[in-house]
Design a protein that fits this description.
Chains A, B: Keywords: Aminoacyl-tRNA synthetase, ATP-binding, Cytoplasm, Ligase, Nucleotide-binding, Protein biosynthesis. The structure is a homodimer of 478-residue chains. With 478 residues, chain A is α+β, with helices and mostly antiparallel strands. Chain A is 32% helix and 21% strand. The first copy, chain A, folds into two domains: 97 residues, Beta Barrel (OB fold (Dihydrolipoamide Acetyltransferase, E2P)), CATH 2.40.50; 307 residues, 2-Layer Sandwich (BirA Bifunctional Protein, domain 2).
Chain lengths: 478, 478
């Protein structure tokens, strides 16, 4: 057994003064040939390890470089240094792995996020990314805990799918056919019957339709899995591969859906604040420092912690799409022709419109409901006005759309006629329609883009910085 | 708000006698025009709803068919029926959705698992699959809880990857290039620079290598995500798309790794036994009934509950590969030439050999360690004998390999020379080797196939019956 160590987070959380412990980790700094800042990834707080002068020979001292790994056994003693209560007085010291300080790409200085993105395989070893990915972990756990405690069943909906009916975006093909000489039908088209699954298959864009199958059996289910878009969007908000959470609830209408989504978002943010306070404090400081270089009017009105506390403690604003359009039409921005895109009832609101509503007008998260049916998906429930659907989008300051959901159309006749109108193949989705044929129920659900949530909670601004190894156009490194 | 209901599981767990409650669910049975067996997916236990004679008209009574959805408000009263403490005396009754009893594919009788596999979109509404997928949920939650409480960081390693270096199996190509007229280089080969990611990409076969990047920063991480094999294996144990859990731990050797894996498996099985007892009891009975039709010597020696309790309460057997081969060579099966494949040191043990060890010889889970290096992956740590590697496989009765893991080769020179021997491209994996260049540490990890675990815990025998929508050769329905 090698793993007889105490994690630094646990050590710093207890009063272990006088005890002998073993720690292992990577060197973050070394000064005066005496004081090692040791990090083991459990927290951003380094443990100060003190090697007394004369304890180690010159050769060993030279090997204590940034990112070298060491094992130290010693006595926990009160620290005289600033910002730490404890330190470790080394008794035995061992270098586990050297690190050539010249060659190591991450120097003990501030690197740009862009530079670290190129070194994504090592960026976890920095304070910023250490904090981001520990917060990401906690959010993921809180999501499972929230749904588990409510009795939702976690469903793994398929990643590879033959369905291209949802129309949520461009898709990646999954195939084992050879490009060089693919099998062809007599008419020259590709013979996908020869492909691995006996048909043309893609990566999923959403688990919702399969989720509805689960909800109409288990009552309440959720998914949490990867989803894909083959869109050539090189922005700070888009990924080709991202993780999505999709709860789906039987016996649930639009209002129940909004209530759940709001409770959910508040719960997981509070959970992160309670369990990763020091990581979020670090990220709040990082953001504040970064914004210092911006002109006053580009800075956030609230600090990160203030913003998160605000979301946890305040109801989201709820308005209809029609009200949203009215607010935009009455806005100084519209009257002064500050919007690039026109505003009128029926438009698919652009990012500038959503940001105006959330960041300028309401200054908090906003739930917009009852969108025009022509700009929304076929499965959303048609309202009695015949013009709108029971959709809801949650817009968050700085992020834009973070949740998209709806009550689903449970009436078979309305659904099939809408599918026909929108050229969605009824035959291919016959399995889906069975939920409406056999004991249909009012039901609803939503999708939350996980990385957008992580952006919101960490205060990071580029989505590539909150997923371990981002997949974007022309980029699939590591 | 529509969702003002009590879940049947919660109702049956409390003494709500005398209270007025609303329930919603699907009809499982209806007899004497009076007694409805109502299920809402929260449990296999139906709630008996009593509609007094004369309360509903003929037309409504006829609509109370299998899988019709209803909403009932009434008074909770003690039940005189067998096997239930409570029932609901209906005061108001509403049909939410009809179900044409003739057309509904799942009749109130026993269907074969094969038939239900064809109706995978509705099989969640049966007792067997209700229990299986609730247990699957609980196991997934227990996995997150186990690692979270130990301070592991949950990492989402990439699904789409350009790396084909691990050699774990055949892969699915991911592409947006057109088959009909793909871009070509001057020499006629396909120009993957024009593909979405600017190179040839595949679906991941394992997140381990990326996981090691996380472990050497956070100390301990785990993954839980989908993995893929494009193997033409049409067996009861193989899926083209399955979910895998891969923990990876810095400062950890083979023994630590085995201890963790064993603690982990015991924890999650105990968690399921504690939280889904009634589902597992149902599945145990199902298995016992099924085995009645088998000849005595084909039946399990232990019932499902007995087997799971045994695993929770007993250490796994630990033997080296060399010892395993000796046991096989000494076995009556070998001496009587009952094995189809030959046994000698150096073979990759076949299923028949593993089953002999686990089911006949030890009659419990077995951890086999220190396999010949020639049959194992390049990243496994070479033992001092130069012939074996610090690998460990956990073999489970009835399932075979459920966990595969190893201590990783942390010595850069040993690793690169082994990669060269095995024709693994060192240059392409330079990012991976950086973990060995900069502060390398002893580390280890393992992979657990989630569906094989679910098979083990539910007593199901075909892996297609424990994942919602199985992907297998020539099959990607729903």
């Amino acid at each position: 057994m090698f793993n007889k160590r105490v994690k630094i987070k646990d050590l710093l959380a207890t009063d272990a003064t006088g005890q002998e412990v073993t720690v292992m980790g990577w060197v973050r700094g070394f000064r005066n040939n005496q004081f090692i800042a040791l990090n083991d990834g459990s927290t951003n707080n380094n443990l100060q390890v003190v090697v007394e002068l004369g304890m180690l020979d010159e050769t060993t001292l030279k090997r204590i470089t940034t990112s070298a790994s060491i094992k130290v056994t010693g006595e926990v003693v009160p620290s005289l240094g600033k910002g730490q209560k404890l330190e470790l007085k080394a008794k035995t010291f061992e270098i586990l792995g050297d690190s050539d300080a010249e060659a190591y790409p991450i120097q003990p200085k501030k690197h740009s996020l862009e530079f670290l993105r190129e070194k994504a395989h090592l960026r976890f070893r920095t304070n910023t990314f250490g904090a981001v990915f520990r917060v990401r972990h906690t959010l993921a756990f809180a999501i499972h805990k929230f749904f588990h405690e409510k009795g939702f069943v976690y469903m793994h909906t398929p990643i590879i799918t033959a369905s291209d009916a949802e129309g949520a975006g461009e898709m990646f093909r999954v195939t084992t056919l050879p490009f060089d000489n693919p099998p062809r039908n007599e008419d020259g088209t590709i013979d996908f019957k020869e492909d691995f699954f006996g048909k043309s298959t893609n990566l999923t864009v959403s688990g919702q339709l399969e989720g509805e199958l689960g909800a109409t059996a288990f009552g309440e289910i959720y998914t949490f899995g990867p989803t894909f878009r083959a869109e050539n969007s090189n922005t700070a908000r888009h990924l080709a591969e991202f993780w999505m959470i999709e709860p789906e609830m039987a016996f649930c209408d639009l209002e129940d859906n909004m209530n759940l989504a709001e409770e959910f978002i508040r719960y997981i943010i509070k959970y992160a604040l309670d369990h990763n306070r020091e990581d979020i404090e670090f990220l709040a400081q990082r953001l504040a420092d970064e914004e210092k270089s911006l002109p006053q009017d580009k800075r956030s009105e609230m600090g990160l912690l203030e913003k998160l506390d605000f979301v946890v403690n305040n109801q989201f604003e709820r308005i209809t799409y029609t009200e949203a359009i009215d607010i935009l039409l009455q806005s100084p921005a519209y009257k002064k022709k500050k919007f690039q895109y026109d505003v009128k009832w029926g438009i698919d609101m652009q990012s500038e419109h959503e940001r105006y509503l959330v960041e300028k007008h309401f200054k908090k998260p906003v739930i917009v409901t009852n969108y025009p049916k022509d700009i929304k998906a076929f499965y959303m429930r048609v309202n009695d006005d015949g013009k709108t659907v029971a959709a809801m989008d949650i817009l968050a300051p700085g992020i834009g759309e973070i949740v998209g959901g709806s009550q689903r159309e449970e009436r078979l006749d309305v659904l099939t006629s809408r599918m026909a109108d929108m050229h969605v193949p009824v035959e291919e989705l016959s399995w889906y329609l069975d939920t409406r044929r056999f004991g249909t129920v009012p039901h609803a659900g939503f999708g939350l883009g996980f990385e957008r949530l992580v952006l919101f909670v960490t205060g990071m601004t580029n989505i590539r910085d909150v997923i371990a190894f981002p997949r974007t156009p022309k980029n699939a490194e590591f």
